[in-house]
Amino acid sequence: MTAAPLPTSPVPAAPQKSAVSWAMDVLVWGGVIAVLLYSVDAVDLGNISRLFSGNDSMKMFVHDLLRPDFSDWKMFVAKMWETIQIALWGTFLAVLFGIPLGLAAARNMAPAWVVTPVRWLMNLLRSVPDLVIGLLFVTAVGLGPLAGVLAITLNTAGVLAKLFSEAVESIDKGPVEGVRATGASKLHEIVWGVIPQVAPLWTSFALYRFESNSRSATVLGLIGAGGIGQVLFDSMNAFNFKAVSAIVIIVVIAVTLIDTLSQIMRKRLL
After folding, report:
1. Cβ-contact 168, 190 below 8 angstroms
2. Dihedral (CA of 109, 110, 116, 119) sign
3. How many C-beta neighbours within 10 Å does residue 169 have?
4. What is the dihedral of CA 162, 165, 169, 173, to 10 degrees?
5. Is DNA damage one of the keywords (predicted)?
6. How many CB atoms lie within 10 A of CB 255?
7. Which pLDDT score is estimated for 26?
8. CB-based contacts of 155: which residues, under 8 Å, 6+ apart?
9. I need a surface site. Which of 112, 125, 145, 207 has the fewest CB within 10 A?
């Protein structure tokens, strides 16, 4: 006796987009394409052929870049180490500021009258470029790595606070409500209900920003905020492209090592 075949449910129809949805897609992507075409002249894209034209300066530049000069490698490495220390301290201080700001900016943790001004502050810190903040601190504290540390701290604090707040807003309410049911205070809710859920994401965000800040600290050196950027800027002004090539190679090696170390730390901590 054969078993009766199991009833099969009908295959649902593929989702259909409405005419309004299609029109919005065409409007959005058509607008992007229109802006790209309109801005071709504004960004001088029509003259990209100059990049490949016979330019003696460009030939000399490429020729020297392919022959790096490591005669001052000890100084280059020392300055690169200073750059890494600037990025490390800037990221560390940014995390210290970003945690309370992130909690205060989370809508499920703080009232609206706290969230709104904190988010405005975060937007301000993120919108001002590192170089502008660095120039302000160079004026305030003078040339040197301290200006770089402070510039990275402010900008990164704004970025991390936003990422931290978004992580807090996406947590599961269950553990928090469980801690609250014991009669615990708000601080205990955060420590035992919120932090364990967001700690892995916060760690990942902080490590990523440290990698980014290692590159940002190099650029800040161009305005006298310490690190290898100043040496790179001086070498370029002196048309010493062989030294520039050596510095770039050292920066690439350092950033690669930092990226590898960050991956190892993520595997250990997450």
Report:
1. no
2. negative
3. 14
4. 160
5. no
6. 17
7. 86
8. 94, 125, 126, 128, 129, 130, 133, 216
9. 112
Averages of pLDDT over each 10 residues, the chain, 270 residues: 58 70 86 89 78 65 74 86 90 92 86 88 85 86 86 90 88 77 76 82 87 84 81 82 86 87 74
CATH label, 70-267, candidates 1.20.1250.20, 1.10.3720.10, 3.40.50.300, 3.90.1720.10: 1.10.3720.10
> How far from 37 is each of 26, 44, 53, 105, CA to CA, in Å?
16, 12, 24, 39
- For the four alpha carbons of 202, 207, 208 and 213, in that order, the dihedral sign comes to positive
* pLDDT at residue number 260: 85
Cα torsion 145, 146, 150, 151: sign: negative
Nearest to 150 by CA among 166, 163, 139, 165: 139
Q: How many residues are listed for the chain in this entry?
A: 270
